[in-house]
Amino acid sequence: MLKNRLSFAALFATFFVAAFTPAPPERLAIGDAAPMTDTEMLDISGDMFSLEDMMGENGLLVVFSCNTCPWVEAWQDRYPVLMARAEELGIGMILVNSNEAYRDQGDGLEDMQAFAAANGYTVPYVIDENHALADAFGATRTPDVFLFDPAFTLAYLGAIDDNARNADAVERPFLLDAMQNLADGEAIDPTVTKSVGCTIKRLS
User: Fold this and answer.
1) Cα 5 from chain centroid?
2) Is the pTM of this model over 0.85?
3) 204: confidence class by pLDDT, cuts 50, 70, 90
4) Mind listing the pLDDT tens digit for each residue in 65-81?
5) To 5 degrees, how large is the angle CA 94–CA 168–CA 198?
6) Which of these, 150, 138, 151, 128, lies nearest to 192 by C-alpha position?
7) CATH number of the domain that residue 190 is part of
């Protein structure tokens, strides 16, 4: 009898967790339109920026990032390269910190300002309040990359490249290739790769 009660309790607990755990947000697919393009977000400069503000002649690169993830740190030497190449190609770029649950654990505004200064950021790095933009995009990781054409249609989604740990060992610079193809009006291949990183720290 006790065994049956324990089994029932375990089953109930499993059901309770499953029933009240928020479902992951639906992820944008290639060809989808960007949501929330006119929503303004606070930048480390103190200014407010929206995705519309950052759209370049040839598109927009949105990178969900943060200060506290080892995977972001591993790819950090690629960030300045992406920033410079985006500018050369006429592609706007914005970094978005959606780690709302970690604002007092290294992902607050002052932390972001220090992190950006230390890593030579030259593009806006904004706070996604209550991870609203991440939820609308279905972003799940840091880093998580979304590249849009000038009409705000999603053209590439996923990872920066195929080797976070060693830039010299990269064989497929997925994002750089996608940016070049987008600017040149050529087909992007692949359009989707697997995002590798820490989970976005959402409020429970």
Assistant:
1) 45
2) yes
3) confident
4) 999 999 999 999 999 99
5) 45
6) 138
7) 3.40.30.10
